[in-house]
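Incident review: delayed structure delivery

Summary: a single-chain prediction request sat in the queue longer than the usual turnaround. Root cause was a stuck worker, restarted by the on-call engineer. No data loss occurred. The affected request and its eventual output are reproduced below so the record is complete for anyone auditing the incident later.

Affected input:
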Amino acid sequence: MTLESKLRALIAGMRYAADKCDEYATEAQSGDIRNIERARARTMRADAAALEAVLNGHNEHEARDAR
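Output delivered after worker restart:
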């Protein structure tokens, strides 16, 4: 398995984890927990997007914009 394929698997895992955070936020009883889980999901998706931008050959500034 190449480094690129490992990183792409990591990106997929991050997106899956973000989806799970959204599920937890939907099921949460407390408003604070909902907000924390949604923020966690947004951060994971943004980090995954930035990593994917770098893997797709974009430069550092474009990757930062993707985040």
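Verification: The chain has a mean pLDDT of 89.
Action items: add queue-age alerting; document worker restart procedure.
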